[in-house]
Write a structure and sequence with these properties.
This protein is 31% helix and 22% strand. The termini are far apart.
């Protein structure tokens, strides 16, 4: 394995973030469709817009000299009201953690998540970082200090 380095994603990495998202969603059992699936264009615009807002969004990726971007993690900050145990006014969301199958089990996702957590700590004012973990990802997040929330996530879809 070459000496792969983590770097902050740039605007021209939006397509790679969509590709990694597709891998993650497929691994979660979702039907992602082909390259022309409508969600991909919406996702490309989303990541392009987010990458243009470096104060509230960051993604960290790992490049392979031959394969290009092979792993990544993304996150953003959003306003959140304070409470008795957290006086901060912002929360972080961590998502889109994915690695190309041929590059898995090398710690690349861990490197990307750690870089993102460092960004949250050092460059934002978030008080907490939240995520939705898959069963495969749960050990990674627990090893980094994430704990189960007291309140389960519930969801109501009002638009497609």
């Amino acid at each position: 394995m070459t000496d792969l380095q983590v770097r902050r994603a740039k605007p021209d990495d939006a397509a790679a973030l969509v590709r990694l998202r597709s891998l993650m969603l497929a691994a979660m059992g979702l039907e992602v469709g082909g390259e022309d699936a409508p969600w991909r264009e919406v996702s490309l615009r989303y990541f392009a817009d987010q990458l243009a807002a470096p104060e509230t969004f960051a993604a960290f990726v790992v490049d392979d000299p031959t394969a290009g971007v092979v792993a990544g993690a993304a996150g953003h900050c959003h306003p959140h009201p304070p409470g008795p145990k957290d006086l901060t006014l912002s929360r972080g969301s961590l998502y889109n953690v994915s690695t190309e199958p041929a590059f898995r089990r090398r710690g690349l996702a861990r490197l990307c998540v750690i870089a993102l957590l460092d960004w949250f700590r050092d460059e934002t004012d978030v008080g907490q970082v939240e995520l939705h973990a898959t069963q495969d990802g749960e050990p990674l997040y627990r090893s980094l200090g994430f704990v189960d929330s007291s309140y389960p996530t519930q969801r109501l879809r009002i638009r497609r």
